[in-house]
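Predict structure. Chain length: 248.
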Amino acid sequence: MEFKEEFLQKLKSAGSVVFFTGAGISAESGIPTFRGNEGLWKKFRPEELANFDAFIRNPGLVWEWYQYRRKIVEEAQPNAGHFAIAEMENYFDNVSVITQNIDNLHARAGSTKIYELHGNIERNYCIDCKTYYTHEELESSGSAPECRLCGGLIRPDVVWFGEPLPQNIFSAAENVARNSDICFVVGTSAVVYPAAYIPGAAKSGGSYLVEINIEPTELSYRVDYSIIGKSGEILPQILEKVKKLKNR
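Prediction complete.
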């Protein structure tokens, strides 16, 4: 693929790079959105399960849904796009990943500086005493587990409908985006707020905004460069250009 010369020059001079990622990059690893029509769960709207009131009313049902989603995530593997992002750390002074995804694939690919805006499905915590548990620490059963310390219900460490994003993580992510030289918007239409403020923060700070998506989005007219295609194919090509430009 041939890239714009302006983009190549930005890559050559950039020191700080941000990757703002969404469901598109995970879809290339075979992870469907939770709005799919899989089996039992097609009877439920996501809003009926991914909220705190639903968990309190029927913790077993909500926990079973997340067990189903965890199994999908556990069987999925990071794709070439995830690995390319992780390897970028060898060629830029500062590489950050700001993700709306909860699947932990960026970490599994080797990225080290990750801001998880919507949490992580592999973590859990007690709703009463806030003690954290990895999934491996919890006994597998059909009902929601209880905290060993206080007996409270344990929930997935993800942001549910009606809940705010973790403010410390979101503020830090905004700051990183605002101070970046290049901000890649990968696999997301960036229309769901407040996460969608991230590209705006980058742009307001003078960052060069690059979109990578399989189709044009509402963000396309605002970016400096829109590249249409699969991130798993485009990001490795960008990485190869970076290796030559940085000459390391």
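Summary: The beta strands are 16-21, 94-99, 114-116, 119-126, 132-134, 154-158, 182-186, 208-213, 225-228.
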